[in-house]
Amino acid sequence: MGSDRGQGFKKSKKTYLIVTEGEKTEPEYFEIIKTLMNNDSSFAKIFKCGKKTDPRSILKAKGRPQYKGADEVWLVLDVDNNPKKAFDELFKWRDEKPGKNHLAISNPCFEFHLLLHFLEKKPKGLLTGKKCLKELKKYIPDYDKGTKKRDFTLPKIKQAIQIAKEIEHNNEDRLILERNGSTVYELVEKLIKTD
Q1: Residue 148 has what pLDDT?
Q2: Global pTM?
Q3: How many separate domains does the chain show?
């Protein structure tokens, strides 16, 4: 079986700082993408937010000194059970520097984004965090908050991007707070530069 490594990718000239709320799944997922980019670790630095994963803590985490110097800063987080008002500061931060500051939000959880890698079309009905996990385990039976390269190939990543784009939010990014969806694809698409 052939390797997906490097196929269909173009080297990114920008550097990306990715701050994740998750301590395991999200960093592992982005490490897989770095591996697919032929182990070019210079294009993206991945930092875990730490124990506090509410939107305000994630926003504070991106200001640490080791986070300086990236062309784009991406905060990767879930809606989870956070109140919509908790995201106000994040949207304000993003809007202050639209070309530099970005949000990659999944509703209800990052596993929703992972699930898109295995579906042929956008999911119907509202999925809770528990339902996302249950559905994801149909495709990755041993899934337990972590990712493995074998589960995320270039064709599956491109499929997830396509399905995420089909989930309509009418260019109203705050709608992600109200219904299932994931804008993580926007970051992934930049990182891999899909054809």
Answers
A1: 78
A2: 0.84
A3: 1
